[in-house]
Amino acid sequence: MFPLNFYNGFLVLRALRGRSPFLISLERNTVRFRFKISLHTAEISVLNLIKLKLGIGIVIEENLKYCSFLVQNLMILKMLFVLFLVLALRALTNKQKG
């Protein structure tokens, strides 16, 4: 599974970003990690563009109002996690300088 520092980092990132697209859930005694961006179905083209540009994930229509871009592959999720953590820390550093 993942080392403890991955879990801690995941939780830190959620705290840094507030309402984070990184989700942690417990399903059938298994911890699951996901990256999810949800928008109104009128903006599904934005999610399809994200999927196309990143070359990862899926776009699903959740219901008549909402659709989501979702990444569940753990290796790709780790890369996204590191990218967002670096960006969040850089934003905090720039905020403190400015």
3D structure, described in words:
The chain has 98 residues and is of the alpha+beta class. The chain has one domain: Endonuclease I-creI (Roll). The chain contains three helices and four strands. It has a four-stranded antiparallel beta sheet with strand order 1-2-4-3.
CATH class term? Alpha Beta
Shape: globular
**Estimated structural class:** alpha+beta
Strand arrangement in the largest pleated sheet: 1-2-4-3
Number of domains: 1
Second CATH tier, the architecture: Roll
Which range best describes the helical content: under 10%, 10-25%, 25-40%, 40-55%, 55-70% or over 70%? 40-55%
Q: In CATH terms, what is the fold-level topology?
A: Endonuclease I-creI
What percent strand? 25-35%
By CATH, the superfamily comes out as Homing endonucleases
Count of helical stretches: 3
Number of strands: 4
Report the radius of gyration as a whole number of Å.
15 Å
The topology string of helices and strands comes to: HEEHEEH
Query: Mind describing the biggest β-sheet?
Result: 4 strands, antiparallel
What average pLDDT do the residues reach? 78
Distance between the termini: 40 Å
Low-confidence stretches: 14-18
Q: Secondary-structure blueprint of this entry?
A:
Layout: H1 4-17, E1 22-27, E2 30-40, H2 44-54, E3 58-61, E4 66-71, H3 74-97
Helix pairs in contact: 1-3
